[in-house]
């Protein structure tokens, strides 16, 4: 797979048509600032030496130099207007989808991203076809998030109760990354996703397998049993961010934000404000689709997002099988 090249020593690889204008503006501002920093610093040192205090020399007020004052007021204003034009033109370009662009819904929630393709299938990694235009329709299920792909030079807020939009065409085959650029709570730093820009052939193969059990899964890849598929989906959907790896209930040696899942199957679970409930298949399914229906005691302040619509029935069965297997 071809790897994208970095556009400069300061910026990550440029992988979309949206990157060129941003990089040009950034490089112009950077080198403009470097030149003026050197010039201004040099002038300061020169004037310090030239006009330093000397015995027998009495300083006089400099007075006003109107032409100079007008120059340093008008010139930066023109520069700022120019930068506004460059930035606004880039913003308009990235907010206007090309004709025939494929629409993908981006769902942000604590603390994971989900990508919904035409037809309704969802994944936790974003798969795109190279040189094909896309329109991202971005929303949040809970709090304010910010959808950020550094390699595309694109960022848009995911706001509860409304939609945001960005449009782009990926131009280089290879991996990129999604971050949340707005602090959104305890596991904000773990709200990550991968972007995979594929050739038309690779993307066609991906579309054909959406929602279906793959032949191989896991890391390293092994034969994809139902439990292994469930484990893969568990990790893909960001569940370890709240429940710990393997549902251990610990992260980095401390208590995880969400309750422990390992060993709960077939055991009574203490429920906040109610009688204990046996952790059977129905309980696990309800906890995934309606997480606030029965809250484990001690976790009242945890807001787990619903995964209704995130799984097909086969995927949901696989996740339940995986949770049952945890010891």
Automatic annotation (TrEMBL):
Keyword Translocase among record annotations: yes
A single GO molecular function term of this UniProt record: oxidoreductase activity
Cofactor(s) recorded in Swiss-Prot or TrEMBL: Cu cation
Gene3D superfamilies linked to this entry: 1.10.287.90, Cupredoxins - blue copper proteins, Cytochrome c-like domain
Chief place of localization: membrane
Subcellular location: Cell membrane; Membrane
Membrane topology label: Multi-pass membrane protein
TM segment ranges: 28-48, 69-92
Reactions it catalyzes: 4 Fe(II)-[cytochrome c] + O2 + 8 H(+)(in) = 4 Fe(III)-[cytochrome c] + 2 H2O + 4 H(+)(out)
Domain Cytochrome oxidase subunit II transmembrane region profile: 1-98
InterPro entries given in the database record: CcO_II, CcO_II-like_C, Copper_CuA, Cupredoxin, Cyt_c-like_dom, Cyt_c-like_dom_sf, Cyt_c_oxidase_su2, Cyt_c_oxidase_su2_TM_dom
GO annotation (BP), single: ATP synthesis coupled electron transport
Enzyme Commission number, as recorded: 7.1.1.9
NCBIfam families xrefs: CoxB (TIGR02866)
Function: Subunits I and II form the functional core of the enzyme complex. Electrons originating in cytochrome c are transferred via heme a and Cu(A) to the binuclear center formed by heme a3 and Cu(B).
Family: Belongs to the cytochrome c oxidase subunit 2 family.
Protein name as annotated: Cytochrome c oxidase subunit 2
Organism whose genome encodes this protein: Labilithrix luteola
């Amino acid at each position: 797979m071809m790897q994208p090249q970095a556009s400069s020593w300061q910026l990550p690889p440029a992988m979309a048509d949206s990157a060129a204008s941003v990089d040009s503006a950034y490089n112009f501002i950077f080198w403009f600032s470097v030149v003026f920093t050197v010039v201004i610093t040099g002038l300061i040192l020169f004037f310090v030496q030239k006009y330093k205090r000397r015995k027998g020399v009495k300083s006089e007020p400099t007075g006003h130099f109107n032409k100079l004052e007008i120059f340093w007021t008008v010139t930066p204003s023109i520069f700022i207007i120019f930068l506004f034009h460059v930035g606004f033109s880039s913003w308009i370009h990235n907010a206007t989808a090309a004709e025939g662009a494929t629409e993908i819904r981006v769902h942000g929630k604590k603390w994971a991203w989900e990508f919904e393709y035409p037809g309704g299938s969802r994944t936790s990694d974003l798969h795109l076809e190279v040189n094909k235009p896309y329109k991202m329709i971005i929303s949040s299920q809970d709090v304010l998030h910010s959808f950020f792909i550094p390699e595309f030079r694109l960022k848009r807020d995911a706001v509860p109760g409304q939609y945001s939009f960005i449009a782009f065409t990926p131009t280089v085959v290879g991996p990129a990354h999604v971050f949340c650029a707005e602090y959104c709570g305890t596991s904000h730093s773990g709200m990550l996703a991968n972007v995979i820009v594929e050739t038309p052939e690779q993307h066609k193969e991906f579309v054909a397998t959406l929602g279906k059990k793959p032949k191989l899964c896991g890391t390293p890849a092994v034969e994809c049993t139902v439990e292994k598929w469930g484990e893969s989906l568990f990790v893909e959907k960001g569940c370890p961010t709240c429940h710990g790896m393997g549902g251990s209930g610990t992260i980095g040696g401390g208590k995880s934000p969400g309750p422990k899942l390992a060993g709960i199957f077939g055991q009574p679970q203490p429920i906040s404000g109610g009688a204990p409930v046996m952790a059977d298949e129905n309980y696990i399914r309800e906890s995934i689709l309606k997480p606030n229906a029965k809250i484990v005691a001690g976790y009242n302040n945890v807001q787990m997002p619903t995964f209704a619509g995130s799984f097909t029935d086969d995927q949901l069965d696989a996740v339940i099988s995986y949770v049952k297997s945890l010891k």
